[in-house]
Amino acid sequence: MSTYGARHAPSAFSTPASIALFRRLTWEGTVPLEIRVDAKELPANSNRGLECYFIQAPRVSYLPLVVPEVRAFLMDVVFDENGGRVVKEEEWWFERDDGGLVKWHWPIGLIYDTYTTSLSPSAATSSSGPTPLKLVLHLASPPTDKLLLAPSAEACKQAFMGQLKEADFIRWGNTKRMTGLRKQEQDGIWEGIREHDFDTYWRIASKITPTPSPNAQGGRSPSPAPVPPSSASMVHTRPPSAEPGASTDANRDAATAVRSVPARIYLPDGPVLQDLVPPALADGAPHTLGRFLHTHLPLLFPIANPRHSSDPDLAYALIQGVPCPLDAEMAWLGACMAGADGWVSVCVGIGRPGA
Amino acid sequence: MSPPASLSRSQFEIACKASLLEHVRNDRDELAQRHLQGWTWVEHAFASGLGYLSRTVQLSHRQDTGCDDSGCVDEFDGQIVLEEYDDAVLSDPRASDTLIARQYVVHSATYQVPVFYFTIHNSKGAPLCLNDILRTSLFRPHTLPPSKITPFALSPEYSSFPLLSQGDHPTLGTPSWYIHPCETPKVIGEILTELPQRTGTEDPIQWMRVWFAVLGGVVDLRA
């Protein structure tokens, strides 16, 4: 994975086709969930032994959007008529089977990744392939000191739109792009999530999301490209366009033109860290993931640009389930690896990532 | 048009600590006195740079609810549902119940301004729903615009984005309510530019005073 892109050749990652590819890959990502109803809470006369439901859920989706499917299964197979009448969906809440908290307003992919990084290094590496995240579905008494009240698809939409709007503000210093969307466009973007429809979502999301500039030197490659600092600083000065159709508008929307990249760091059992993440550093060099993590977690990431295999490997970064090379550029991550809510969620795990 | 104003995390921290000290020393500023009573500066258990102001106050249910029942409707899944009350309003035990409000002033890493977060619980420890929150003494009567209310947020009728919404406390990660900060940079910017030059727009303490004064117009900040 270290041989992508020669120094001056246009990076494969910077072509419109590859942007679309990475956005598609991010969008199509799914995670396995095993949802088991808490046996102690099953209504009387339930069909015991079948109270477990498996689903391959889209990373960009949310648990309240999965609930109707789970409910239909439980009604069909597990609950009897009386049981079906007594359960109240608005009381339902999820918990990891190890007791970990599951926030219903987080994207499912983020819930899965924070679960992965919470495992001890040995547990994370012992598995081969993705293991289902085991969730316990409780049918009553959500812990109101830990979870936001009244989960529903509508509440989820409001939380999601709030995240999109924050991401908009971080990128451009105002929320004009988001607030400028018409009502049916705002509804459409959520419809894209609900239906897991890439085209519906991106038809509108492309109006607010930056595109990596196809012309920037140094590439948007997340590979360890051997770019010396002097050359890397050229990224800042945009070369004249060689492509017809690369307009001023395209430059304005370029990933490197944003004020800051919406990014948060999730630590196992720690607070969520957030700061301004400019796409380029003061000297014009691209802001990399390694630099970002080194700035905030110097003990876990003692070197901003590790280049040698002998460099310490104390922790790793997981983005959309992918262990991410530390020289990935934040601007590129913001344009291609952000969640549907606009945020690059960097989940930090201790040790080496699992196989 | 005045430029939007922002306050960095370090300015926020300096201002919060200085405002507290100043309050202890200087009793003449009555408004600041009321706003700053009882706040303490709290750091995260092990991560640095995530400090915030915190205090606990008692609230009551407002006698004058400030809105007749027809104005307080739940919009839930597109249905307008009129509030259901217990038949005997006068003997409603909620009216005399003591409410505990935890209040926080945190720094928004997104908007680079202070944000007011809070939770309100009844004496049994149960959190209040939004409709009940709006009937507490926390909000000054008649200050909120005509709004759509869902269990998750309150949004002005003219906007599709909330003024007041649920959200995780940025440092504690616990469920809270917060007053949305996206208009704060503009409002504070306008006021700061109107102030006498000597105070300057760069003075973080002045910034926090103005912010508390603006917040105090909507929220009753008396401890």
Automatic annotation (TrEMBL), chain A:
Subcellular location: Preautophagosomal structure membrane
GO cellular component, one term: Atg12-Atg5-Atg16 complex
Sorted UniProt keywords: Autophagy, Isopeptide bond, Membrane, Transport, Ubl conjugation
GO terms of biological process kind: autophagy of mitochondrion; cellular response to nitrogen starvation; piecemeal microautophagy of the nucleus
All copies of domain Autophagy protein ATG5 alpha-helical bundle region, residue ranges: 154-211
Residues of the Autophagy protein ATG5 UblA domain: 27-138
Region (Disordered): 207-254
Record flagged with keyword Ubl conjugation: yes
Gene Ontology MF, one: Atg8-family ligase activity
UniProt membrane topology term: Peripheral membrane protein
Biased composition (Polar residues): 208-220
Domain Autophagy protein ATG5 UblB: 261-348
Family: Belongs to the ATG5 family.
Function as written in the Swiss-Prot or TrEMBL entry: Involved in cytoplasm to vacuole transport (Cvt) and autophagic vesicle formation.
Subunit structure of this chain's protein: Conjugated with ATG12.
Name of the protein described by the UniProt record: Autophagy protein 5
From TrEMBL, chain B:
InterPro entries given in the database record: Atg3/Atg10
Family: Belongs to the ATG10 family.
Name of this protein: Ubiquitin-like-conjugating enzyme ATG10
GO biological process assignments: autophagosome assembly; autophagy of mitochondrion; protein modification by small protein conjugation; protein transport
Highest taxon of the lineage: Eukaryota
GO molecular function: Atg12 conjugating enzyme activity
Keyword Chaperone included in the entry's annotation: no
Alphabetized UniProt keyword annotations: Autophagy, Protein transport, Transferase, Transport, Ubl conjugation pathway
A GO cellular component entry from the record: cytosol
Matching Pfam families: Autophagy_act_C
